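Help wanted!
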Amino acid sequence: MRMVTNYRGRAKVVFARRFRQNGCASRLAAAAVLSNALVLSACSDLKPIAEFGKNGSAVAGYPEVAKDYVLSLQRQRSYGQAGTSVSDEKIAERTRQAKRLRDAQAVLEAYAKALGSLAADDLISYDKEIDALNKSLVSGKFATSAQIDGYAKAAKFTLGFVTDIYRREKIKRIIITYNLSVQKATAQLVKIVETDYLTALDVERVMFTQTVVDRARRSTADLEGMPQLVTLLSDEHREMFKTREANAKALAQGMRTFAKGHQELANNIGKVDFKQTIEVARKYADQLKAVIKSFNS
Amino acid sequence: MPKISSDDAIELAKQFKESAIVLGQFQLDRWDNLSKAERRNLTDVEYTLLDHSQNLVTYAVGKRLDDAEASLQDIKNATAQANATVKTIKDIKKVITIATALVTLGATIYTANPGGIATAVGGVLKALKG
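Answered by r_m:
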């Protein structure tokens, strides 16, 4: 960073000196030196936005909650539950809800990845990621095909070359363009995870403990080896519940953090000094990193 | 007529889960004194209450309540009273009566009209007094 600053400082001096002393050709050459210096310093500036996108996509891509959402009902059947909450209709309904969860995750993952690629100057992946994002927005019913055309125009590059200033402008455009979709997808994800999945997991835990473990313990208390076996199975299952609950909470917390950070970026970008915007991205990138660490394997 | 919100539904689901828990505890505490049929009966009611707990989260949201007949608070109070009572009584028949009234109330909240809810709340209160 100091090297870049020194380079920029020297470039300014060279530019000023040449502008005063020489003709037009020299001015252009000096302007090019200054422009390069600014690009170099700005590239490193965008790293927090790249991290924000990378960490956001890592959290959004967590697949286990959507998978387990249906499995939870199937496990309840194996515990002996035969009520309407585990009926075939209910399993079909939950399968549809799990798809809605995966749709929301797909949107958030694709968007965060595209934002990260743009900020990291990985422009080869970027256009493909925007296509994937727009496709997931339509299939998840977060946007219509007509809206997507406008989104693509705002997001994709139209120039054959990319300056850093242009890239910053694109970052601003995609953050503002996609903010509503990010907020919608996050609300859908958080609702399914926190209200539906965690409630289901909690009920399943009670059901397993009461109707399976406690009864098995009472019925087999006099049988040699059985109490130990029941305790062993119960402990394993309890760990499973703890891990799933912690991961579901991490997913919801992570995406809420991403959406909050994104909203703050959308509110600030272009209105305040770019350094302030970068600081917002850095703060939320760090928070997301902590969330990633909180996932249990 | 007010509607049941998502938070209300979660709160009701918790109460019905709590009902299943106290019933399960009642059964375990008296395991050796209960007949096989009584154990089976209690287990079935527990499953049904847990069933309602999950269904309430999904289906109760948006259901209308008639405050003049039975408000959300009336439902919560009746359920809380039932849970507290099961913790203190020893009579299996009375426990089954209360639990059955709770089962009716749970189902009525997410399937029936506001009038049905009022009747079901009355049923729980009657079981508590009886």
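OP: Thanks! One thing I noticed: Residues 32 and 39 of chain B are 10 Å apart (CA to CA).
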